[in-house]
Design brief:
CATH architecture of the largest domain: 3-Layer(aba) Sandwich
Mean pLDDT: 83
Structural class: alpha/beta
Number of strands: 7
Shape: elongated
Order of helices and strands: HHHHEHEHEHEHEHEEHHHHHH
Number of helices: 15
CATH superfamily of the largest domain: Vaccinia Virus protein VP39
CATH topology of the largest domain: Rossmann fold
Low-confidence stretches: 1-21, 40-57, 142-156
Number of domains: 3
Strand order of the largest sheet: 3-2-1-4-5-7-6
Length: 388
């Protein structure tokens, strides 16, 4: 079937040909005939490298977004003056949300392993080396053996390997990766990332950035990795909010303007027990803070619950981190009303404009919002790259 990646063929093919092995030998190594090997080579490797003249980007610098979700990262880059030309997102409802926000972009609704470099470049209307930025956040695997010589079929590294395959095919000037802070906690992980990008001709730098420092009304610490083709200095944005700078944006600032058409139907329902429990919890507190004063029938029994369970917002501070899933107790709760927030209110805490449409069920939209990159954070990174 055209466009579908059969496990064990594309990635090792690309890896082996990059090592200089002949087409016939590579075909034998991955178990395909010589004629099929030549077709794979034309499809996945023989992508034109632009001349110096064709590499000059007319107009706005271009962006390709992988693992694009509902489009938070791209929204930030677009606000900074970039042109979003293509995205890859396998979840259909998230892809629909992305397309609504970026109608001019080509959205490939497919897993990254099913997308060839040639197909992605055609969708973007670019040639190899012409894209300014490739961005995205592949899921985080164990990195102890992720290196230039180990990009094989190890399932633990599958999506990262595929991400790097597309970087090699597209050859963008910059690569921006956003992920959980734990990604940077291992020296082996950092070394693996550096080695993998160095093989492709990129230098790498990384930092942990807090979205609140860039005007997002939410504390959200994220690992940001930036790779630059050809080496050289890599810029990161300077915080604009916080101590000695602009004041942090608070939950009150984010939610005070009326939300467009907010109705009771958009607010997740609470049981009578949960509503009563919430009435004992003060602004900025979680159920654990209120436990000493809770009646016995409202106390939380058991262990293993997150520290933020039944936690109200502090109206005078940024929100705590918005998440995409979890039980009823993990919803974000209003500081003065006995209710969780609507999805639109959650989107505001992430820095989305009210005009950004989300598609899907309430639960699906919650996941899209919680998994997104806050657009103001992405915009700060994008503006740093333009200056760099």
């Amino acid at each position: 079937m055209a466009g579908v990646h059969r496990r064990g063929s594309v990635a090792p093919w690309h890896d082996l040909t990059r090592r200089g092995l002949g087409v016939r030998r590579v075909g034998r190594a991955v178990g395909i005939s010589a004629s099929t090997a030549w077709r794979w080579r034309r499809r996945f490797v023989d992508v034109a490298v632009p001349s110096a003249e064709s590499s000059a980007m007319p107009g706005a610098p271009t962006v390709i977004d992988l693992f694009a979700g509902a489009g938070g990262m791209s929204a930030g880059f677009q606000a900074a003056g970039f042109r979003v030309v293509a995205a890859v997102e396998m979840w259909d409802v998230a892809a629909k949300s992305f397309q609504s926000a970026h109608p001019a972009a080509a959205v490939l609704v497919a897993p990254v392993e099913a997308v060839s470099g040639r197909r992605l470049l055609r969708a973007a209307g670019l040639v190899r080396g012409e894209c300014a930025v490739m961005c995205g956040g592949p899921p985080c695997p164990p990195f102890s053996s992720l290196s230039a010589s180990r990009l094989t079929d190890d399932d633990r590294h599958g999506l990262w390997r595929e991400y790097l395959r597309l970087v090699d095919c597209v050859l963008p000037q910059w690569v921006v990766i956003e992920n959980v802070p734990g990604l940077l906690s291992s020296a082996e992980a950092i070394g693996g990332i550096r080695d993998a990008f160095a093989t492709l001709g990129y230098s790498v730098a990384y930092r942990i950035l807090d979205a609140a420092d860039f005007g997002v009304p939410q504390y959200r610490r994220r690992a940001v990795i930036i790779a630059k083709r050809g080496g050289g200095a890599i810029p990161f944005p300077a915080p604009s909010h916080g101590s000695g700078r602009l004041p942090y944006r608070t939950a009150t600032e984010a939610l005070a303007p009326p939300t467009n058409g907010l109705t009771a139907a958009e607010i997740p329902p609470l049981s009578a027990l949960a509503t009563e429990r919430l009435s004992y919890i003060a602004a900025g507190e979680s159920v654990w803070d209120a436990m000493p004063r809770l009646p016995l029938h409202l106390k939380i029994k058991g262990s293993g619950f997150p520290s933020s369970i039944y936690r109200r917002l502090d109206e005078n501070a940024p929100s705590y981190t918005v998440v995409g899933n979890g039980g009823g107790g993990t919803l974000i709760y209003h500081w003065g009303e006995n209710r969780p927030l609507s999805n639109r209110e959650r989107a505001r805490l992430q820095g989305f404009d009210d005009g950004h449409a989300f598609h899907g069920s309430h639960r699906e939209i919650r996941a899209q919002i919680g998994n997104a990159v806050p657009p103001p954070l992405a915009r700060a990174v994008a503006e740093a790259l333009k200056l760099g």
